Amino acid sequence: MRNLYDLDQYRLHSRAVLKHFGSTGDHETGVFDVPSCIDKYPMRVIASVGEGWDHVSVSRPSRCPNWPEMEQIKRLFFRDDETAMQLHVPPSDHISVCHTCLHLWLPHDQEIPRPPGWMVGPSVRAAE
User: For residues 83 and 96, which has the higher predicted lDDT (pLDDT)?
Assistant: First the structure.
């Protein structure tokens, strides 16, 4: 994950954050309001680290974040050389505290496997 001090312009320092989390965070944790790239409405982002994972949750009050918004958050909170993932777990393992919240995950001890590029689509170079 990026150094989250670089995102201090979005960091919340409210009493509610202090009461709930005990601090306003540090270089790898915090609560942030990031304006959506779609409509500029603030998305609430909570970044945390623990048990071998970087974790970022992203929510809006009335709907889930969409793909461009999740991509925006991925680019802000994770380095360009990192692959972060959303997980779609079996229904029996599904946990939902907020129905308008999505999550990005990055394990510390392993590389996230990715399919070969040709399975995703033609590259720009191949199309030339």
Answer: 83
